[in-house]
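Hi P.,

Sorry for the delay on this. The queue was packed all week, but I finally got your sequence through. Input first:
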Amino acid sequence: MAVDSPISAEPAAALAGTQLQRLLRMAEARPPLRTAVVHPVDALSLTGAVEAARRSLIEPVLIGPMARVRAAASAAGLDLAGLEVIDVEHSHQAAARACEMASRGEVAAIMKGALHTDELLEAVVTEKAALRTDRRMSHVFVLDVPSYPRPLLVSDAALNIAPDLAAKRDIVQNAIDCAHAMDIPDPRVAILAAVETVNPKMLSTLDAAALCKMADRGQIVGGRLDGPLAFDNAISVEAAAAKGIRSEVAGRADILIVPDIESGNILAKQLFYLANAQSAGIVMGARVPIMLTSRSDPEASRLASCALAILVSQHKPAKYLR
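Then the structure:
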């Protein structure tokens, strides 16, 4: 399949030598992932899907109003020859068709196009879609922060608004599974709060302590947990030492679990805009990986998210005690 993209050289240059380039190298040795691209009716979402196809990361099935998809392709100078396009009337129908195809095994992943996240996820969680598992779905950012020596996973900054303890357990396990898919076999998980001591007046510190004990009891498996930890103690060995914190996790975290969506969203965006972090993102906990790319995401992030979806799709989730 020959697909031309006017900016095909940019993503490789943007990712060169980064943690996200490692994801691409791992994924490019594997078969492309047949992916439903939902409502790709703007140049940005369509270009990301076409470029991912050009690099043999995905085999896209473009689902949306045919006229609008082709108009977006024309505006972006993209050739859709050889790509499957399914004509539907509107974005709601595109989301429903993508979920239907995923539930029947006709696609192995779903990619968000030019529609709102809640519109896509409403289709995913319906009983008819049959894409839910016994896990709460959660989003994982995989960040490459130039000043940090390893990939940094942040969850949940996009889906769960104010998760309770049971939801946080699933959020932690989903993030650990994502790390395993990236070949991080025993990730260090920092449960974040404003302080590093348990304070009965701060629910986030109580949840952090409970999550650590749940890991001790086999209710969370595959990673090393510590918390509560403040952000500085989680990512800085010097800050942890200054506070007298002795921990396998403090200062060397692979995964940051945030208390709620507001703190997670603020943390991730600070790293994007102030620390020049690059990101990939994936929804875990459904029967297929779901790529929730943002309209502000550069093409490099979209490619890295495709690579992450390939790795996650081929990884078996961990089993843990209920």
